[in-house]
């Protein structure tokens, strides 16, 4: 991956979504909360994979 800016942006957005879900979990309906939590877990997992992949590619 040559575009590190998009990797950084994706990582920041994924962690921001997870943080917002944690902070506002009382105000989100339960069914929607479950779906958003699943999406956040997938995005954070993908961001970890992309970070590791880009670090391995840089070396």
Automatic annotation (TrEMBL):
<protein>
    <recommendedName>
        <fullName>Signal transduction histidine kinase</fullName>
    </recommendedName>
</protein>
<keyword id="KW-1133">Transmembrane helix</keyword>
<feature type="transmembrane region" description="Helical">
    <location>
        <begin position="35"/>
        <end position="56"/>
    </location>
</feature>
<keyword id="KW-0472">Membrane</keyword>
<feature type="transmembrane region" description="Helical">
    <location>
        <begin position="6"/>
        <end position="23"/>
    </location>
</feature>
<keyword id="KW-0812">Transmembrane</keyword>
């Amino acid at each position: 991956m040559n575009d590190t800016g998009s990797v950084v942006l994706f990582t920041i957005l994924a962690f921001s979504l997870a943080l917002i879900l944690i902070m506002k979990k009382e105000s989100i309906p339960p069914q929607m909360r479950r779906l958003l939590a699943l999406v956040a877990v997938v995005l954070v997992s993908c961001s970890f994979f992309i970070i590791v992949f880009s670090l391995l590619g840089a070396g």
